[in-house]
Amino acid sequence: MRHSDRRDAIFAELKNSCAHPSAEMIFSAIKPNFADLSLGTVYRNLTLFKECGDIVSVGVVDGKERFDADTSPHNHFICRNCGAVIDIPDKFRIGVEDIEADGVQIESVDIVFHGLCKSCADAEHN
Ligand SMILES: [Zn+2]
Ligand SMILES: [Zn+2]
User: Fold this and answer.
1) Which ligand is nearest to the CA of 20?
2) Residues 73, 56, 70, 61: is their CA dihedral positive or negative?
């Protein structure tokens, strides 16, 4: 397999970003360094990383899937106005025991909060 430099660049861009970028955002950021890079290549590599468990999908915001290289348990807040995805500490696990009391086994928890981020809320109030 060649082109591991591109794969590394895609992963590094995701790892170094706190924006939970989409494939398109990663593509725009590293395209200047890889003239022949295609959006399809970025998609394919993200799918591969996801299958390997190296990254997680945060969900779809405005029709674009967003990704996170931080696979430790935490939750997300998504701004309905600007699409910002913000990390929320994982302290909302209350009730897991109650749910498992019904016989299901919980393997992961994804809680997404929706609303306005600080700058959008500030803008709305001014
Ligand atoms: Zn916002
Ligand atoms: Zn995150």
Assistant:
1) 2
2) negative
The rounded Å distance from CA 39 to ligand 2 centre is 23
Smallest-distance ligand from the CA of 57: 2
pLDDT digits (tens, 9 = 90+) for 68-77: 999 988 889 9
Give the tens place of pLDDT for each residue, 93-105: 667 778 888 899 8
Which residue is it, tokens 């969900």?
A: 59
Do 117 and 86 meet the contact criterion of CB atoms below 8 Å apart? yes
Residues 6 or more apart in contact with residue 74 via CB below 8 angstroms:
87, 88, 89, 90
Which residues, chain by chain, have CB under 5 Å from ion ligand 1?
79, 81-82, 84, 117, 120
**CA of residue 18 to ligand 2 center, whole Å:** 8
| Residue pointed to by tokens 């494939």 | 23
Give ∠ CA 43-52-103 in degrees, rounded to 5: 115
